[in-house]
Every structure is written in C-alpha cells, then in structure tokens.
What we know:
Blueprint: E1 3-6, H1 13-24, E2 27-30, H2 31-41, H3 44-55, H4 61-71, E3 81-84, H5 90-103, E4 109-114, H6 117-126, E5 127-130, E6 136-138, E7 158-159, H7 166-180, H8 182-189, E8 193-197, H9 202-213
Parallel strand pairs: 1-3, 1-4, 2-3, 4-8
Antiparallel strand pairs: 5-6, 5-7
Helix pairs in contact: 1-9, 2-3, 4-5, 6-7
The chain binds BIS(adenosine)-5'-pentaphosphate and magnesium ion.
Amino acid sequence: MNIILFGPPGVGKGTQAVLLKDKFKLLHISTGEALRGEVARGTELGKKAKAIMDSGKLVSDDIVAGIVANAMQNVGDRKGVMLDGFPRTVAQAKILDTLCAEKKIRIDHVVSLEAEKELILKRLSGRRFCDKCGKDYNIYFNPPKVEGECDACEGGRLTQRTDDSEATHLNRLNVYEAQTEPVKGYYAGKGLLRTVDGTGTPEEVFSEVCKILG
Length: 214
Ligand code: AP5
Ligand code: MG
C-alpha cells in the first residue's frame, strides 16, 4: 500500500505518520524532515533551503522531487511508501505521477487531515522537541512533566523548530491555501482523496485513518 498524508502545516501529519508507519510497515518519506536533516548537516542543499523554510515559502519542486526519488529507492522489505508533506504543488503531483510510473508504484489513498485554522495555530505554537533525543511534545496537548525539560532523557531541553514562529505560521498557512490546497482537487479528480477530521486526539485521528486504510 502506498499513501500520501496530506494537510496544512501543523494539522498532525508527522504525528500520524509515526503511528501509521509501524502499523502498516510503510517507509515514511517526509520532505520537511529530509530538508531539516540537510540543514543540520550544513550541506549546500541545506544552506539553500534554510532561508526559504524559515520564511515559510516552498523549496523548489526540483529539490524536493530529487529527495523523494532518492528516498523511494529504500523501500526494502517495507510494504509501501507513505509520503508526508509531498506533493505540495500540482506540479509536484505530476512529477510524482512520473516517478510512480517509472517505479511501478500505485498511490492507493491520499489521506487529507483537516482542522480549523485556530486549532492548527495552537498546535504549531505549542510544538516542542527535545534537543537531545528529538522526542516530540506540545505544551498545550502533550506537555512534559517539568516545564522545558525532556521526560525521556537526562539533561534534554525542549526547543522549537526554527520555522515555528508566529509570523512564519501565518505565511505557511497562506502558502498552503494558495499553492497546496489545489492538490486536493487533483487527487479528488483521480478518485483518491479521503478526508479525515483531524481535530480529535492523536489516537482518535489514527483510528479514523485506519478505517480508511483497512
Ligand atoms: P514540513 O516539515 O512538511 O512542515 P509542514 O507541512 O508545515 O507541517 P508540520 O511538520 O509543521 O506539521 P505536521 O502536519 O507534521 O504536524 P505535527 O504532527 O508536527 O515542511 C517544512 C518546510 O519545508 C516547508 O514550510 C517548506 O519550506 C519545506 N518543504 C517541505 N516539503 C516541501 C515540498 N514538498 N515542497 C516544497 N517545500 C517543502 O503536529 C503539530 C503539533 O501538534 C505537534 O506538537 C503535535 O504533537 C501536535 N498534534 C498533532 N496531532 C495532534 C492531535 N490530534 N491532538 C493534539 N495535538 C496534536
Ligand atoms: Mg511534519
């Protein structure tokens, strides 16, 4: 099974991806995480991408398509791929069609997580992660036992993604509406779009997504 996890920034794609990849044995391909990895390693690509990401704009289609094409080679013994944060433009969706044709892969479902802007902004502004072990927290929905400190590792401090500032959140949501939302119509036209209410707890949303994936 091959799926696309779709939805606005902060709706919970990454949170669901962690649960889904284990249950369905999928290779999780997150273009955002791959780009953050390039930034952390200080590669040329990372240097180019950082300013764009921090402004909330989209990195070029060519760059992200290259990331996905490479990552797709690593399916190994997994039962398929789960794309998270790609495609984000109709042009990327068309590139993915070509990639899938080349690799003889068929996308089975495009799962679109939906939530109101106010909730999304709260999730984004509350997001934290441990600077040592990477564990995710949310100060509103999943806070640590001691403020600012990781529960899971000694000395880990909670920090924010560099694109998790209030100004960038609004930019990212505007970019989503202008450039990414049209991708929904592209997949609706192919009969692949499955819409899921993303407002419940992570477990509730997971259970809804599982009903669709079977
Ligand atoms: P990317 O990393 O993909 O970010 P995004 O799409 O903006 O989405 P997020 O990762 O911010 O949110 P999410 O939906 O994964 O939510 P999460 O699970 O973390 O992209 C970053 C940047 O890279 C882009 O802006 C762009 O510049 C570039 N980029 C990436 N892909 C690209 C592409 N294809 N083309 C061009 N550029 C690209 O949840 C958010 C918070 O809410 C967390 O704290 C979580 O704990 C909490 N939460 C989640 N679910 C729930 C729930 N059900 N209940 C309560 N809290 C919840
Ligand atoms: Mg994410």
